[in-house]
Design brief:
29 strands, alpha+beta, seven-stranded antiparallel beta sheet, six-stranded antiparallel beta barrel, globular
Length: 646
């Protein structure tokens, strides 16, 4: 952003006269400048790059919630091609737009669009016993059937307080999240009030939006309406549908996505604050939900919206679905939150079938096309009597022919990733696979389900900050929020380069065991017990302790507490070593001795490094470490609860 406030010591007219610039000459200069700019714009096209830190295909969060640190909004960022107009309240006689309908038709939908003011507190996964300071943000939402408000999941993420403001009304109403779908970046809100009259006041004059049917055509006109950065009044940006694609909704941890989903690219500007707002077609129906934009100088006016079908599938999947009577009965008196499990997930990994040697090996005819399966989820295989197997060749999904690059036709010659045939289905809808197995054509029909990721994906959905401190060694489970919540500086100091390798490696595999966790040593809180072990900003994956493979954090905690208990029961002190040394003549050279488990804790890591600590010293150091670092306990409550159930 450039500072446009400059001090002028003389009037513009006097300045022009001094330079000898006359009006005709100025008009000529302006005409030449405009012509040159237009020619330059037409002749040049750049390729947009994402801001994702991962090499996976992910769209950048540009149209995210607008982080606010001040009471007044920042100056607007002017986009050269964004056709933006602010509409006054009650305006009825506006000019006709390029869409072929009156602006008054669109303004009648403004009553359904609300400003979200969100206060939030994010967790600190690098210091899991802490939370970040409170922040505030703005976003957009709109009213749907069943007296609900729909917005983006990232707008209300970690919210501690949500306020809604209607268009043309200064009053703020409280709201709460009743359901969130992180895999589709959508959330449903419920309006709250001190009494029924206050709630009814919100719904007075408010009509739910109308959904468009199916995907919009390319080059069809659209309008994004919301409350983006640059002001507090409602704002409309106009554009066209540029592309229909199948892509990844996640950013830093793209490999954790359950599969690619349909996405619509438009050239209407989507800025911070637009997130969660509706995108209307020429008839005033919603064709999608604004949620991302491409930032940077390499791309201009590249925005993304979640298609209507994805949004409606989400509403259908939750317990309080799109049936108004069901919603009112489920939420009467502020009932429990709705349940959302996720989209139907891709249960296999595949490889293109383009290499002639591979095709010959699999006995694929020359006119055949498809992809070969390289791995299948072991958990998914337990759900069905007959399911996909490694080296199966998928030729069709739901009757649509697959290309050798895993593309299918959407409409006519629009080719895209075939994941949408699965991730775009409603809950309980079956999928039919035509495959070739050992040269034999087969057909497999299955109702696919969400699958538990090899690494937890979302805070408060499949993971929360957990920790265990043993002799100053800080152990945490490997989760995606370790990366998504950590700032670049914090991660850099903690050896963040390692976490990319860890996450990519584990997410390339399917989960095999339900309760298995990958445990990471992310820091050494220095004390006399661990003095001499240099951390060197390097995260390490724990492999075993005292020769026993560690299954999860609860298992690690149990091993530690059992060692402490055994030491206490035997009355061990610093000068008593007899029992633990029985039969351990070579203990000095063989640190793995199981007999030493009560006196020493031997941690072995996947990188072949090793840390040995004395159990008694670990017990003595607990109080000192907790006091020095302001930690409430050596272990989080969640781990204790799981350990008690073992």
């Amino acid at each position: 952003k450039q500072d446009t406030t400059t001090a002028h010591t003389k009037s513009g007219l006097a300045e022009r006269k001094e330079m000898g610039l006359t009006r005709p000459f100025l008009r000529l200069c302006i005409l030449i400048s405009v012509s040159y700019t237009a020619a330059f714009t037409i002749s040049r096209m750049t390729t947009g790059k994402t801001s994702s830190s991962s090499s996976h295909n992910a769209l950048p969060h540009h149209g995210q919630r607008f982080e606010s640190n001040e009471d007044t909004p920042p100056p607007p960022i002017i986009s050269p091609r964004a056709r933006t107009r602010s509409v006054s309240i009650g305006s009825k006689q506006l000019s006709e737009t390029g869409n072929g309908y009156k602006s008054s038709d669109l303004s009648s939908r403004f009553c359904s669009i609300v400003l979200l003011e969100v206060s939030y507190v994010e967790p600190e996964y690098l210091r899991p016993w802490q939370k970040s300071s409170q922040g505030s943000a703005y976003g957009t939402g709109f009213v749907i059937s069943g007296r609900r408000v729909l917005t983006n999941g990232h707008v209300i993420k970690d919210a501690t307080d949500i306020r809604l403001r209607k268009h043309g009304n200064s009053k703020r109403w409280r709201a709460r999240v009743i359901c969130e779908g992180p895999d589709v970046d959508l959330a449903v809100l419920e309006v709250l009030g001190d009494d029924d009259n206050e709630i009814e006041a919100f719904w007075e004059g408010v009509e739910p939006i109308q959904w468009a049917a199916g995907l919009p055509l390319l080059q069809s006109s659209v309008n994004v309406v919301g409350y983006p950065t640059g002001g507090r009044t409602i704002c409309v940006t106009e554009g066209v549908v540029s592309r229909i694609d199948c892509s990844n909704y996640r950013i830093k941890t793209a490999a954790a996505a359950p599969g690619n989903l349909l996405v619509i690219q438009i050239d209407a500007a989507i800025n911070p604050g637009n997130s969660g707002g509706p995108c209307f077609d020429h008839a005033g129906r919603v064709v999608g939900v604004a949620f991302q934009g491409m930032d940077g100088s390499d791309a201009q006016n590249v925005g993304y919206i979640i298609p209507t079908d994805i949004a409606r599938n989400f509403l259908h999947a939750i317990d309080c679905n799109d049936d108004p009577t069901s919603v009112e009965s489920n939420n009467a008196g502020g009932a429990d939150l709705c349940k959302y499990e996720g989209v139907q997930e891709i249960p296999y990994r595949w490889a293109p079938l383009q290499n002639k040697s591979l095709r010959k090996f699999l006995n694929i005819p020359k006119d055949g096309s498809g992809v070969v399966i390289t791995s299948v989820s072991p958990i998914a295989q337990t759900y069905y009597d007959d399911f996909l197997q490694e080296n199966d060749v998928i030729t069709h999904i739901d009757g649509k022919s697959l290309g050798d690059d895993y593309t299918v036709s959407l409409r006519g010659d629009e080719l895209m990733n075939a994941d949408f045939l699965i991730t775009g289905k409603r809950k309980e809808a079956p999928t039919v696979f035509d495959i070739i197995r050992d040269t034999v054509p087969l057909q497999i029909k299955a109702i696919l389900k969400p699958l538990k990721s090899n690494i937890p994906r979302e805070h408060n959905h499949d993971c929360t900050p957990e920790w265990l401190i043993v002799g100053g060694l800080l152990f945490v489970p490997l989760t995606c929020p370790l990366l998504s919540y950590g700032s670049t500086d914090d991660l850099e100091e903690s050896g963040y380069l390692k976490i990319y390798d860890f996450i990519d490696e584990h997410l390339a595999k399917f989960r095999e065991v339900e309760d298995k966790e990958t445990i990471v040593l992310i820091d050494i809180l220095t004390c006399d017990t661990n003095f001499g072990y240099d951390f060197k900003s390097s995260w390490r994956i724990l492999q075993n302790i005292n020769g026993e493979d560690v299954k999860n954090m609860a298992h690690l905690y149990s091993i530690y507490t059992n060692a402490c208990q055994s030491l206490s029961e035997n009355g061990r002190t610093e000068d008593k070593e007899e029992k633990c040394q029985e039969g351990t003549e070579n203990k000095a050279t063989e640190a793995d001795s199981s007999d030493a488990s009560c006196e020493f804790l031997i941690f072995k890591f996947r990188d072949k490094s090793q840390i040995v600590l004395e159990t008694a010293d670990c017990m003595k150091s607990e109080e000192e470490i907790l006091e020095q670092h302001g930690i409430p306990s050596i272990v989080s409550a969640g781990i204790v609860g799981k350990a008690e159930k073992r």
